[in-house]
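Before drawing any conclusions, I looked closely at one protein's amino acid sequence and its backbone structure tokens, quoted below without any editing.
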Amino acid sequence: MQSTAQQQKEVQETLLTPRFYTTDFNEMSNLDISSNTEEFEALLQEFRADYNKQHFIRDEDFNKSWGNLDNKTKILFIEFLERSCTAEFSGFLLYKELSRRLEKSNPVLAECFLLMSRDEARHAGFLNKAIGDFNISLDLGFLTKSRKYTFFSPKFIFYATYLSEKIGYWRYITIYRHLEKYPEHRIYPIFKFFENWCQDENRHGDFFAALLKSQPQFLNNQQSKLWCRFFLVSVFATMYLNDFQRSDFYKSIGLDARQYDIQVIRKTNESASRVFPIALNVDKPEFFMYLDKCATENKKLIEIDKRETNPILKTVQKTSIYLNISINIIKLYFIRPIESSNLLKTTK
């Protein structure tokens, strides 16, 4: 058995680690959503229905021993669970606080955030129980107190969270459909829950889409196009780099990490075009070429960290790599985007 200190595992902070966010609660309190009242009322009814109330109940498949997983796969899978749990818990904290702060000024938004925090807490708890199957516990209370919170203005919260919820949907449903087709690669029963689970992500994304549509100033000018482009590039690049360095995990469930990410990026880009004024030109050959270059450079960073090298030399080497990654991200950003209306015409 592991010690308590070992069991209460801390998640190492890196540039690619899921972050905890805070925002301008006064600005959020003053939001006028009257232009989209009907959609918010419909969304609230869906949240109240709580379609997944009975879904996250562990069945007998979880009672098996998981000692038969080879050590490398186990380590990668635990890391996948930890990252997923941290991301869900981050959403819970943000939504819960928004609900508390908006209760008097905007009760409809407050209740929506409260019910979304319920969903995120359920997801995080389910994932943490899964981590427990490997004799490890993620101390969520410690995370709440110890993690640094990144400040985003409300419109940035809307852009980033809308995309994270939609990309979460496409990630979960893609894995679920793959494992339905190839059940021999389902190394752990949690994947059976992904179909209904991702519908929570989809509803949350629809809520943030409604928020964005209720604030046309966040979508209908040149500045908005630049910010939408920035968040699309940031979210896609972060996922791509994360998954590239964990390609062995995807291999263990029968997926090619690169092809998986390409499919998820294409689907999320298309989904976002229904809300954002622009979409990224993912069909341009350079698009994934630049992402591949970033991922290769990021792998070099990991290898440098593993070496017993002079700290000054490490810093010099890493600075050069960060510069190369930044250059390729900038090139990615400056690929001319597509007007969303044009993309939607081609996908109908």
Observations:
- Confidence is low (pLDDT under 50) at residues 1-11.
